[in-house]
Structures are given as structure tokens and as C-alpha cells.
Amino acid sequence: MNAQSHAETRRIFIALAPPDDAKAELERALGPAYEAYPRMRWNRIEDWHITLAFLGEVPAAAAALLGPPLAELAAAHPPLRLALRGGGHFDERVLWSGIDGDLDGLHVLAAEVRALVKECGIAFEGRPLRPHLTLARARRGDLASAVEAAAGLADFTGRPWRTERLHLVGSNFGRGPGPIHYRDIESWNLGGEDRILHEHAL
Question: According to DSSP H, which parts of the chain are helical?
Fold first, then answer.
């Protein structure tokens, strides 16, 4: 993909993010797993997020259409009170931490976000919402690391926190086998009209 075609599309999703101190709590709880399973592909802490709608690769022009309606949605939606709790795994490969707190409100917000995306004419993965924070992925053939690391998080309960912003996030793809990083395109305060513009293009 040349530079021009890369600029014409974005791989994006809409998400919430825990505050730094809540992430620091979980980071401390993960200390033994970091040491025991260094070969797992650990996500960067600054990339931890709770996905509400994954849109995949979309034209940049279509992504730009989402800004104004997402700003209105965020301003009209009150903050949620959530917490990080426990851990689990998908298919013995993907390690995650669970979400606790106002899950009904979280599902309502996700449904509103997904309805907005459809109204904008953008197709996306319509999988049922399973609130979680993806932490790491085990390498192929490794059927123990994620399972054992999840067991180590069984008793973890983080402090409650308020969701501050709704984030429109883009993937920053490298040109090699390294990890995928994420960057905010824009974010908006929940329950307010303040808009934060992080970048114009990925």
C-alpha cells in the first residue's frame, strides 16, 4: 500500500479508556504474569481500551463523518461508573481483564454508538458486546500462558472510576511484524461539549 492509499483509509473503532490510576492498579496486578510469560505479545498500557464498536478499515472521508454525531452523542450521555475486575481468555490465546460496574449503561452507550455508525452508512463488525480490556495475545502453539495469566487475575478488583471521554481511535500500522499501536483521532467529554482533536490523519 502506497502512502496515498494508506492516507485514504483508516482502521478505526470507538471506545472508552480507563484512567491512568486504574490502569496502574491492573499493571501492578499483572507484574507476576509479565515476569512469567515474557513471550506473550503484551499490549502497551496506553493502548488499553474498551471497544464499543469496531469499524475496521474505512475510507477516511467516511471516518470524518462520524465526528459531529459522536460529539452530540457524547454530550448527551452521562459518564458511567465502571471498574476493572478479574481476568479471562478467548480461545486460550487472548488474555483480558473484565469490566464491572454500570454494565447496563455501558450496553446502552454501545447500542447508541452502533446505531449512529449505521446511520452514517458505515458497515462494521456487529458482534455482541462483551465488555473487556484486551491485555495480551499468546503466540501460536502456546495454550498455557493466557490461561494461566487469566487465573492469576481471578481475585483482582480495581477501584471504581468514571468514564470521562468517548474516543474515536485509529490503528497505527507499522511496516513489519511489530505490535499494532493506537492513537486517538478525536475524543469528547461524556456529558459535555468539550472536543479534543488529536490528529487530522493517521
Answer: 3-8, 20-29, 31-36, 60-65, 67-76, 103-119, 145-152
Angle between helices 67-76 and 103-119 (to 10 degrees): 150
pLDDT of the residue at 142: 86
- Reported as a pLDDT band with limits 50, 70 and 90, residue 180 is low
What's the CATH number for 10-197? Answer: 3.90.1140.10
Q: Output the average pLDDT for the chain.
A: 86
Domain boundaries, the chain: 10-197
Handedness of CA 14, 107, 134, 18 (dihedral sign): positive
On whether the CB atoms of residues 60 and 121 are closer than 8 A, the answer is: no
Helix/strand/coil percentages in the chain, nearest 5: 35, 35, 35
Closest by alpha carbon to 29, among 45, 50, 9? 45
Q: At residue 64, what is the residue type? A: A
This prediction has a pTM of 0.85
Residues assigned a catalytic role: 49, 132
Q: Which amino acid is at 78?
A: P
